[in-house]
Design a protein that fits this description.
There is one protein chain. The chain has strands at about 20-25, 35, 40-50, 50-55, 60-65, 70, 75-80, 90-95, 105. With about 110 residues, the chain is mainly β. It is globular and about 40 Å long.
Length: about 110
């Protein structure tokens, strides 16, 4: 038996992380998160569906099942939108946290 590993993403943490909280997140058809930041950063994996992903100032990426992503601490996430009008997008997110940080902070 051989263990296989497929690299999905790399992100620079660059700070102390006290804990990692892992969530399964489901975005309904056509839903988006709006402009936001993650105080502690996020590493994630798309389980099913397709999402438009964009950090502010960068190009939009299309993420699909099997894609990995990283959102650095404090980076402004311009888009994380479900591209389907009929199916949810499901992903697993690992939130890197310290103290009583929020998972997500909307930007008005």
């Amino acid at each position: 038996m051989r263990i296989e590993r497929k690299h999905l993403s790399t992100g620079e943490v660059g700070r102390e992380v006290e804990r990692v909280e892992t969530y399964r997140v489901e975005l309904p058809p056509g839903a988006g998160t709006g402009l936001h930041v993650h105080p502690g950063g996020v590493s994630g994996y798309i389980v099913s569906g397709r999402a438009a992903y964009q950090l502010e100032g960068q190009d939009v990426e299309e993420l699909s099942a099997g894609s990995g992503f990283f959102e650095p601490a404090g980076a402004r996430v311009a888009r994380f939108d479900n591209l389907s009008a009929t199916e949810p997008v499901v992903f697993v997110a690992h939130y890197l946290l310290s103290g009583d940080q929020e998972l997500l902070v909307p930007v008005e």
